[in-house]
Structure formats: structure tokens, C-alpha cells
Amino acid sequence: MSREDRGSVTAELAVGLPAVVLVLVALLAVSASAITQTRCADGARAGARSAALGQDDATVVATARRVAGAGAAVSVSRADGWASVTVSANVGPWRGVPLRPASTAVARDEP
Length: 111
Hints:
Oligomer: single chain
Structural class: alpha+beta
Radius of gyration: 23 Å
Number of helices: 2
Strand order of the largest sheet: 1-2-3
CATH topology: Pantoate--beta-alanine Ligase, Chain: A,domain 2
Order of helices and strands: HHEEE
CATH class: Alpha Beta
CATH architecture: 2-Layer Sandwich
């Protein structure tokens, strides 16, 4: 190794490390979004099943939040024998991430 090459590895690492960190943060944000989307879908389905069985709206919201997570926003609507439950939630601990997964499930009222 010549004297001219000394420190080049350190300089290359200093240039490349921010790119690696950025890719890692993006990967974590997308993974957290996928997990939150799955939880929202599961919560919406559980809430729709509860609504179809004739539960009141407070019970439906509690059921959906129990599955989707305590911070999930849940809305319930009923019309013409159908119940619709929409669940949305923030992604991970990052408030600046512009991802807000949501899911809606619809179920027919049981007789």
C-alpha cells in the first residue's frame, strides 16, 4: 500500500455509510408498514364479524382495537343489513413517515 492510498478506505466508508443507513431506514419503514397493514386488515375482519353478530358499536370498536392495536382508529357503519368496519393506524414510532395503512371489511348481518 502506498502512502497515497492511506486513508482511502476510511474516506470510502464515510461516503458510503449514509447511503447504507438510508436504505436500512427505508427497509424498516416499509416492513413496519406491511406489519401495520396486516394488523389493520385483521382488526377490520374481526370487527366486521362482531358487527355481523349484532354487537353494539362500542364492542365492535373494542374488538377491532384489540386485534389491530390500541392506537388504531376504527369506524363502524351499518346500512341495509351490511356492517362495514374501517381500521387505520400510524406506522411505527416515526411520526414523520407518510404511511398510514388502512383496511375495510364488510359483513352481512346474521339473522
